[in-house]
Amino acid sequence: MDLPKLRIGRVEVDIPIIQGGMGVGLSWENLAGSVASCGAIGVVSAVGTGYRHPDLVERDKFGRPIGSYNIHHPEALKRIIREAKAISGGRGAIGVNILAAITDYGRVARDAVEAGADIIISGAGLPLKLPQYVDGADVALVPIVSSARALNLICRTWKKRYGRLPDAVILEGPKSGGHQGFKYEDCFKREFQLENLLPSVLEEARRWGNIPVIVAGGVWSYRDILRFLKMGASGVQMATRFIATHECDAPLIYKEVVLEAKKEDIILLKSPVGYPLRVIRTPFVERLLSGVNGWKGCVSNCVTPCNRGEEAKKVGFCIADRLGAAWLGNYEEGIFISGANGYRLKKQGIIHVKELIDILTGKKEDPTLSKGRVRRIVPLLK
User: Fold this and answer.
1) What's the number of domains the chain is made of?
2) Which of 40, 158, 297, 357 could disulfide-link 15, Cβ–Cβ 3.0 to 4.6 Å?
3) From residue 221, how far is each of 152, 238, 319, 320, 341 by CA, in Å?
4) What is the pTM assigned to this prediction?
5) How far apart are CA 343 and CA 364, in angstroms?
6) Can you name the residues that pair with 349 across neighbouring β-strands?
């Protein structure tokens, strides 16, 4: 069965798949551009772009960008977006994921518009002021929500203040990698699972003029995509599966960590942002769970809820430092993100984005669903 096209505002793509934004450094120009070149929507993460182009930023002796301007650097983001669009070859679309919780949120949104982003996707908090920052630019705005109530609040606020509505909405369930829009205990309750949240969000979206609903958080296979489309979704967002691609911007060690993860290794931590954070058990996480506080002071002032390191000190780590360390390939000190289904990737191994898109659109067999042997495409961690 051929999948339908996906339309978000003025953007129309052949494949109704959005590659989820993953920061720091998992989805920058290579991954986003490659996904778009296949006719889907590739998404650049706006988080920590100072790590991508260290020549542009002021850093401390450990290589950490100093201050919010440098951690979320404007010229670094613009370079990444422009290079992603060049790689796409004019196919698909390039979106930018901007966490509503980051410091300098409005400025980063303007940077994305200036660089020519087709779509801005925003979650990890309610992006109630997002339209204010894009100043009437021809860019599609897509908030991420975890409930019909959140969508209603965004629609009411945007309509009253700015005279516009979301061009689409992403409903993210509690199986995604990274930050969850739920309390820890709710992540495991049946009523908060994606398939049970979708009907009420679809109903709310219809009330505001049939806003397209894209589902995310645990969507894994072609069969999943068909199931959610049949339920009324217009498309899906997927992130973790794209980590195990050659084009993913993460270093090889990051991909190896994900490929080696067992189901029980993928857990939720308390984050300085104030949401549960899904990560893989690694040496730093083990030390953290044993009671070691790994916070080393606030350098980047990356997210506003952290209150310049006060919350990081409480939970035992700075998220910018630890995600930055992972992107730099530091297995001992980094935090590595995965969705709840990431353990399935070991059957797939590392493949090209084009092959993954073929799998997700039903053109090729999905190795993660078969009972065949595990594919070893790279030497894994010993």
Assistant:
1) 2
2) 40
3) 30, 9, 30, 31, 11
4) 0.93
5) 21
6) none
Write the DSSP assignment of 232-287 as a string of letters: T-SEEEE-HHHHTBTT-SS-HHHHHHHHH--GGGEEEEE-TTSSEEEEE--HHHHH
Which is it for strands 276-280 and 178-179: parallel, antiparallel or unpaired? antiparallel
CA proximity to 331, closest of 301, 375, 287, 376: 287
Q: What whole-number distance in Å separates Cα of residue 115 and Cα of residue 119?
A: 11
User: Domain range for residue 234?
Assistant: 6-250
Q: What is the rounded CA–CA span in Å between residue 60 and residue 241? A: 34
Tokens for 262? 């067992």
Q: Which residues of the chain have pLDDT under 70?
A: 371-382
* 8 A C-beta contact, residue 194 and residue 171: yes
Torsion of CA 105, 60, 329, 76, to 10 degrees: 40
On whether both 287 and 182 belong to a single domain, the answer is no
- Pairing between β-strand 6-8 and β-strand 11-13 as defined by DSSP bridges: antiparallel
CA 341 – CA 110 distance, rounded (Å): 34
> Is residue 343 included in any domain, yes or no?
no
Q: Which of 77, 79, 85, 74 is nearest to 42 (CA)?
A: 85
N-terminal to C-terminal alpha carbon distance within the chain: 41
* Whether residues 166 and 262 fall in one domain: no
Whether residue 302 is contained in a domain is answered as: yes
What DSSP character marks residue 305?
G
pLDDT of the residue at 371: 67
Residue at 304: amino acid letter = T
Contact 162, 132 (CB under 8 A): yes
What's the confidence (pLDDT) of residue 340? Answer: 96
Instruction: Return the ∠ at Cα 124 (arms to 216 and 18), rounded to 5°.
Output: 30
Residues 244 and 258 in one domain: no
pLDDT at 129: 95
CA distance 217 to 318: 24
Cβ neighbours for 35, distance < 8 A, ≥ 6 positions apart: 17, 19, 41, 42, 43, 92, 242, 247, 353, 357
pLDDT value at residue 377: 45
Q: Are residues 119 and 243 in the same domain?
A: yes
